[in-house]
Structures are given as C-alpha cells and as structure tokens.
Amino acid sequence: MSAPAISVAMSVYNGERFLREAIESILGQTFGDFEFLILDDGSRDGSRDIYESYAARDSRIRTIVRDNRGLIVSLNQLLDEAAAPVIARMDADDICDPTRFAKQIAFLNANPDYGVIGSWTADINEFGASHRLEGFDHPTNHQEFLQAVKDDGPLLCHPVVTYRRDVVRNVGGYHAAFRHCEDYDLWLRLASVTKLANIPERLIRYRHYEGQVSARHATEQKIGHTVALWAYHERAAGRPDPTQQLTALPEVGQFDEAFHTKGLDWAVRERLAKGLQYSPSGLRGDGFEMMLDYLRDGGSQEGMWRTVLRLVRYGEPLRAARLAATLSSNRPLAA
User: Fold this and answer.
1) 3-state secondary structure of 150
2) Which of 122, 123, 121 is nearest to 208 (CA)?
3) For the Glycosyltransferase 2-like domain, which residue ranges apply (predicted)?
C-alpha cells in the first residue's frame, strides 16, 4: 500500500473531556488521505475507551498505548512512527476546521521552500464560546515570521501546524530541555533551514482553560522561551548552539554560570516578571516569588501596579498586598 499524504500526530494524556470533538474534527476533514496516529501517554481516565471506539470504525486511526513519558517523548515518537512525508499536529482539546488539511497540503505543494505552515486561530473557552485575546495574529510569510521573532510576537500555534517530517527530523526533532515550550524552540531552530508561515484563515478553534499545559506551566514556559531565544541569537551569530545537548535547563540563578555568559539570568528573570503579569496561573504559582525577588533587586516596575489590581480580580488579595508592599519599598534600577 502507498503511504498516505499526511500523518496526523496527536498525543493524549487524560484528555477525555474534549477528545470526541477533537477526533471528529479530524475525521470530518474534506481531505481524507491521511493516517491518524493517536498516542496515549499513560492516560488514567476514559480516553482509551473513546479513541478505541473511533478506531474500531475508521481504519485510518492507528493507536499507540504506553506508559507516561511526557509530551516531548510522545512528539518525537510520533515523528518516528509517521508513514507520511507530511505531519499535521493536533491536540486532544482543540477543533479543526473541515478544510484545514486541504488548505495546508495545497500550500506546501505550491511552496516547496516552506517546511512549516500553520494558520490563524479562533480562540474558545472550555465551553466552546469565544475567548477574547489581545494581540496580533500569526505571521503570514517568512519575513513576517522573522520580524515576529524580533518583536517577541506570536509565531505559530502548535496544534494547527503541518510540517514536512524530514525537515523537522533533520534538526533533531523536539528538544527535551524545553519542556512546555518545545514548539517555540523548534520553530527558532527551523527558521535557519526552512521557511515558516501561517495561512490567514482561522483553521482551528484553539481552546483556553485553566487545566491546559500552557496555563499550568506558565513559569517554566517563560523561562524556556527566554533561553530558546538567546540560543537562536547565538546560532545566528555563528556560534554553537549552547542548548543542543541539554536534557534539562538550569535553575533560575544558574544560567550565567552554566552557559559561561553574563546577563542571561537577569534576562530570564525580567522576561518572567513581565510575562507573568498576564497569567492567572503564573501569578498563583511559584513564579510570583521570583517576580517579587526581581523587583526587590531593582527590576522594572512597569505595569506592576496594574498587576496588583489584576491579582485582586483573580481572587488573590494577599498576593496583591505583598506585591503592592514590594513596589512601595523598592525602586527600580536606574536606566
């Protein structure tokens, strides 16, 4: 039998709540020449019953069941398991537009110099209603992508990307050190070997809720983003990738020593403090203490008083009071 045109790669971990909608949105694609790989990363809920019921009715679904090893291991295994030259990512809590695959495969066929194509998103909440986000849409060509890297803007929404398998494998796939921001690191590494862009159509309904990975691990994600961007600039300057062999990132406070550089620790702390201002889960987590330490050491107070009010709205009056006290007793470093 000939290989399918697309391998759909979905990792599932305790995803029963939204899994049916996600699977049905894949099976309902207008472009049907695909295999659907569903890797169960050690789920302990009813996920297996759900995806096996669909697999029994549709031969395009191929399931892989094993113990829990984490998302990065799962994504790299799906890369190895895929039979098609093109891989379409999908998460177990999102919903694809029926024309997604048709439009993305057409783009890749027409643009051989592009290795990755995503799309804009329609953002929804846990109940499927519209979720309002501020900010810009994703870049629609490679030049815009490179500018978005410079501007620290959005690059690609991971569960709606479709990419050429060999291009991703040739850069080493997903790197273990960048847990919870493994996609961001991958896009930055790919930017030097291929072109990346997004179709300016909303081909996925991307779900936002407290339980999702990006919400639960906001602090670790912000730290990883900063290091990945620093490594990108190191590579662009012709120096070796300092993160290439890492399986985990150093702790905050150890970056300068670990990478034999000066100022990376401060850059990590600054980005973390700025990024967590808009993250309810981050402000409720351990990143809050890091934010206070950054301010006590003279970090920028820009936007922090608004964060005090935000904490009150999030139902965290004690943390709001602690932040206000820190802002009142500490002055930022002179420019």
Assistant:
1) helix
2) 123
3) 7-171
Give the model's confidence band at 334: pLDDT under 50 very low, under 70 low, under 90 confident, else very high.
very low
* 313 burial level (CB within 10 Å; 0-12, 13-18, 19+): exposed
Please give the helix or strand (H or E) that residue 114 lies within, else none. strand 114-124
**Domains in the chain with CATH codes:** 6-215 (3.90.550.10), 217-329 (no CATH)
Q: How confident is the model at residue 239 (pLDDT cuts 50, 70, 90)?
A: very high
Report the predicted TM-score, pTM, of the whole model to 2 decimal places.
Answer: 0.92
Which pLDDT score, from 0 to 100, does residue 281 have?
A: 83
Output the six-digit token pair for 160: 């709606």
pLDDT tens digit string along 120-174? 999 999 998 998 877 789 999 999 999 999 999 999 999 999 999 999 999 999 9
| 88: amino acid identity, one letter | A
Q: What was the pLDDT predicted at 335?
A: 39
Residue 48 CA to residue 63 CA, distance in Å, equals: 9
Helix axes 182-190, 71-81, angle to 10 degrees: 50
CA distance 79 to 22: 20
Measured CA distances, 229 to 124, 146, 174, 254, 332 (Å): 28, 12, 15, 17, 25
| 156, β-bridge pairs | none
pLDDT in tens, 20-31: 999 999 999 999
Two structure tokens written together for 329: 């007793």
Q: Pairing mode, if any, of strands 162-164 and 34-41?
A: unpaired
The percentage of the chain sitting over the pLDDT mark of 90, rounded to a whole number, equals 87
Amino acid symbol at 214 = S
Using CA atoms, how far apart are residues 188 and 167, in angstroms rounded to an integer?
13
Q: Which long-range contacts (CB under 8 A, 24 or more apart) does 278-283 make?
A: 278/310, 279/215, 279/218, 280/210, 280/215, 280/314, 281/210, 281/215, 281/216, 281/218, 282/218, 282/219, 282/222, 283/307, 283/310, 283/311, 283/314, 283/316, 283/319
